[in-house]
C-alpha cells in the first residue's frame, strides 16, 4: 500500500518539477484529472488487497501459516547454534548434567520397584503365616474365620498387584531409561567430537593465517631496511657503483618477497575468514542444534517415563479396588448368629442334663424310740416304701452314682469327647451321640460320592465296550472286561459300607428318639426317680436296678472263671449311649467270659478301657466291634490316657 502511494506522489512531484517557480501553478486540467484517476485506481486496489489479507488471516490456512511463522521465529530465537555459539564448554557440562539427572531418576525408579517387590513379598509371607495348610476336617466353618481367610486371599491378590506394579516399572520405566541413557551417551560423545574437530580445524586455519601475517610483517621490515640502505648508498658520493647496484638489487628482491608475502597473507586471511564464517554460521550451529535436539528428546523421554510411572500405578487401581471391595464384603459376611449355631452343632453331645439325686435313707435300720408323731425328714415316697416293706437303698461305694459323682458337670470335670483320647473306632462309638451321628452322615455322603464316581466309570466303560463291539478296529471289547469287573466289585464294597454306616446311623437316631421320649416322660413325672438319666448319660428305669448293685466281685488274682451275681451288671449295660474311652489294654491271658456281663478276650487282643477298676478286681472294656463287658484286671496290661486319669 505504501509503495503504491509513493508511486503516486513521485508522479505528482514530476509534474510539479516541469514548471519551475510560479509557472508550476499552470498545470493543465487533463494532467490533474489523470492524477486523480490514478489515485482512485490505486485506492481501490489497496482496499481489495487489505480485505483479501484480512480474510486470509481469518481462514484456517492463514492461521496455520501465521502459527508456523511464529513458531519458526521462536525456534530461531531459542536456537543454541545462534544464541550460544560461544558456549561450547557450558553446553558440554549441561548435556552431561542432563544424562546424570536421567540416570538419577532411573536409580529412583529402581529403588521404588525394589520397595514394591519387598512389600509384595512381605505381604505374601504374612498371608502364608496366617493361612497355614489344613486338612479338610480342620477347615474353619465360622463366618468370622471364613471372612478372615477371604481377607487373606484378597490381600494375597493385592500383593500380586504390587508385583505387577514393580514389573511394569522395571520394564517400562527403569529398563527403558537405562537403554536410552546409553544411547544418549553415545550420541553426545559423537556430537562433542564433531565440535572439537571443527574447533581444531579453525585453530589450524588461524595458525596458518597468523604465520603468513607474521611472514608478511617480517618481509616488510626487511624491505624497509633494504630501501633505507639503498637510498643511503645512492646519496653517498663515496659509494661505488657496484655497491649501489647491489643495494638496489637487494631492495628489489625484498620488495618482491614482501609483495609475495602480502599476497599469501591476503589469501590465508580470506581463507580463514571463510572458514571462520563457516565454523560459526554452519558447523557449530548444526552441532549445537543436534545437541539441543538430543537434550529436548531427553526431556521428552523423562516426561514419558513420568507418565509411565504413574500409569503403572493407575492400571492396577481397578483390581486393587476390587480387592478392597472383597475385604469389605468379607467383613459384611460375618454373622454372629451363624457362628453361635456352628458352635452348638460342633460341640453338642446329645446327652441330657443330669436329673435330681434320690434321697438315700440311712436310718431305716435304726429302732424308732420316738413317738409315732415324731417329725421325720424322710420323703413321702420313702415312707410309702417303708410301709410296703420294701427294703431301703443302701450306699455302695461301687454304685454307678457314687462312681460318677465327680463327673457331674456343668462347671465340673467334663468328659472330653475327643478322638485324641483313643484310637478311632470304625463306627465312631467313642464319640457322643450327636457327634457320632454327624460323622456317620458325613461318611455316608462321602461313600455315596465315591459310589457315584464308580457308577459313572462303569457306564463309561460299558459305552466304550459297545463302541468296540460295533467297531472292532478301534479296540478289543474283552480288554475292558477286567476293568468293568473291578469297578462292579468296588461298587459292591461301597454299597456294603454304606449299608453298614446307615445301620449305625439308624441305631444312633433310634437311641436319640428313645431318649427324647424318656426325657418327656421324666418331665411329666419329675417328682419320682423313675426314667432318670444318670450323670454319665445312661438311663435307669427301675429304682431297684438303680440302687441294688453287687456288693462283691471276685478279683481274679490268677486265671479263673468268676461267678458274679446275675443281676450285677444290669445297671451297667442299660446305658443308651456308650461310655467314653479312657485308655486301652492288652490281654496277657485269654478269658472265656462264660458269666453274664463278662467279655470274652483272646491273648494279645487290644481292648478299649471305658471304666477303671474300682477295687473289686474287674475292669470294664470294649472291643473294636462295640461289644462291652468286664474283664479281670490282672489279665490285662492297662494304659490310660493322661487326660482321663483321675477323672
Automatic annotation (TrEMBL):
UniProt superkingdom: Eukaryota
GO cellular component term, pick one: plasma membrane
Residue numbers spanned by region Disordered: 355-407, 503-578
GO biological process: one example: endocytosis
Location of the REM-1 domain: 430-507
Swiss-Prot/TrEMBL keywords: Cell membrane, Coiled coil, Cytoplasm, Cytoskeleton, Endocytosis, Lipid-binding, Membrane, SH3 domain
One of the record's GO molecular function terms: lipid binding
Protein name, as recorded: Formin binding protein 1-like
Origin organism lineage: Eukaryota, Metazoa, Chordata, Craniata, Vertebrata
Amino acid at each position: 500500500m505504501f509503495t503504491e502511494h509513493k508511486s503516486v506522489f513521485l508522479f505528482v512531484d514530476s509534474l510539479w518539477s516541469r514548471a519551475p517557480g510560479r509557472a508550476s501553478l499552470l498545470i493543465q486540467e487533463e494532467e490533474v484529472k489523470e492524477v486523480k484517476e490514478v489515485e482512485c485506481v490505486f485506492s481501490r486496489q489497496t482496499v481489495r488487497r487489505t480485505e483479501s489479507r484480512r480474510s486470509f488471516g481469518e481462514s484456517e490456512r492463514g492461521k496455520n501459516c501465521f502459527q508456523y511463522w511464529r513458531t519458526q521465529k521462536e525456534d530461531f530465537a531459542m536456537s543454541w547454534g545462534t544464541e550460544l555459539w560461544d558456549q561450547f564448554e557450558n553446553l558440554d557440562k549441561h548435556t552431561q548434567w542432563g544424562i546424570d539427572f536421567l540416570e538419577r531418576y532411573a536409580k529412583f525408579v529402581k529403588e521404588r520397584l525394589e520397595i514394591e517387590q519387598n512389600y509384595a513379598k512381605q505381604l505374601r509371607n504374612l498371608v502364608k503365616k496366617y493361612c497355614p495348610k489344613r486338612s479338610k476336617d480342620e477347615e474353619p466353618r465360622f463366618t468370622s474365620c471364613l471372612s478372615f481367610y477371604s481377607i487373606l486371599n484378597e490381600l494375597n491378590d493385592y500383593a500380586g498387584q504390587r508385583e505387577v506394579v514393580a514389573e511394569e516399572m522395571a520394564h517400562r520405566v527403569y529398563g527403558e531409561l537405562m537403554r536410552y541413557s546409553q544411547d544418549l551417551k553415545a550420541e553426545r560423545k559423537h556430537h562433542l567430537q564433531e565440535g572439537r574437530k571443527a574447533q581444531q580445524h579453525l585453530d589450524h586455519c588461524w595458525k596458518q593465517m597468523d604465520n603468513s601475517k607474521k611472514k608478511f610483517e617480517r618481509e616488510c621490515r626487511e624491505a624497509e631496511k633494504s630501501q633505507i640502505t639503498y637510498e643511503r648508498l645512492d646519496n653517498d658520493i663515496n659509494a661505488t657503483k657496484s655497491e649501489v647496484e647491489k643495494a638496489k638489487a637487494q631492495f628489489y628482491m625484498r620488495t618482491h618477497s614482501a609483495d609475495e608475502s602480502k599476497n599469501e597473507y591476503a589469501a590465508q586471511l580470506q581463507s580463514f575468514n571463510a572458514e571462520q564464517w563457516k565454523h560459526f554460521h554452519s558447523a557449530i550451529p548444526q552441532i549445537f542444534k543436534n545437541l539441543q535436539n538430543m537434550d529436548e528428546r531427553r526431556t521428552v523421554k523423562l516426561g514419558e517415563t513420568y507418565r509411565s510411572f504413574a500409569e503403572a500405578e493407575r492400571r492396577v487401581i481397578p483390581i486393587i479396588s476390587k480387592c478392597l471391595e472383597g475385604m469389605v464384603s468379607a467383613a459384611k459376611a460375618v454373622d454372629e448368629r451363624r457362628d453361635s449355631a456352628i458352635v452348638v452343632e460342633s460341640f453338642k453331645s446329645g446327652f441330657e442334663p443330669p436329673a435330681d439325686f434320690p434321697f438315700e435313707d440311712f436310718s431305716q435300720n435304726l429302732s424308732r424310740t420316738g413317738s409315732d408323731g415324731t417329725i421325720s425328714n424322710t420323703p413321702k415316697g420313702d415312707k410309702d416304701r417303708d410301709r410296703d416293706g420294701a427294703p431301703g437303698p443302701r450306699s455302695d461305694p461301687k454304685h454307678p452314682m457314687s462312681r460318677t459323682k465327680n463327673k457331674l458337670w456343668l462347671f465340673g470335670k467334663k468328659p472330653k469327647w475327643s478322638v485324641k483320647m483313643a484310637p478311632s473306632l470304625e463306627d465312631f462309638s467313642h464319640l457322643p451321640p450327636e457327634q457320632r451321628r454327624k460323622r456317620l452322615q458325613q461318611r455316608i455322603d462321602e461313600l455315596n460320592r465315591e459310589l457315584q464316581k464308580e457308577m459313572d466309570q462303569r457306564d463309561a466303560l460299558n459305552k466304550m465296550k459297545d463302541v468296540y463291539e460295533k467297531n472292532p478296529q478301534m479296540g478289543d471289547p474283552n480288554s475292558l472286561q477286567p476293568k468293568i469287573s473291578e469297578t462292579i466289585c468296588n461298587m459292591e464294597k461301597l454299597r456294603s459300607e454304606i449299608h453298614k454306616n446307615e445301620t449305625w446311623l439308624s441305631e444312633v437316631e433310634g437311641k436319640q428318639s428313645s431318649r427324647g421320649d424318656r426325657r418327656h416322660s421324666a418331665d411329666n413325672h419329675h417328682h419320682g426317680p423313675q426314667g432318670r438319666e444318670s450323670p454319665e448319660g445312661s438311663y435307669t428305669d427301675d429304682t431297684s436296678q438303680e440302687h441294688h448293685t453287687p456288693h462283691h466281685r471276685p478279683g481274679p488274682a490268677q486265671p479263673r472263671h468268676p461267678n458274679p451275681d446275675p443281676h450285677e451288671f444290669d445297671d451297667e449295660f442299660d446305658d443308651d449311649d456308650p461310655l467314653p474311652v479312657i485308655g486301652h489294654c492288652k490281654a496277657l491271658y485269654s478269658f472265656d467270659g462264660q458269666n453274664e456281663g463278662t467279655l470274652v478276650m483272646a491273648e494279645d487282643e487290644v481292648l478299649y478301657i471305658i471304666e477303671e477298676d474300682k477295687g473289686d478286681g474287674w475292669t470294664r472294656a470294649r472291643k473294636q466291634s462295640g461289644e462291652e463287658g468286664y474283664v479281670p484286671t490282672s489279665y490285662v496290661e492297662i494304659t490310660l490316657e493322661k487326660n482321663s486319669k483321675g477323672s
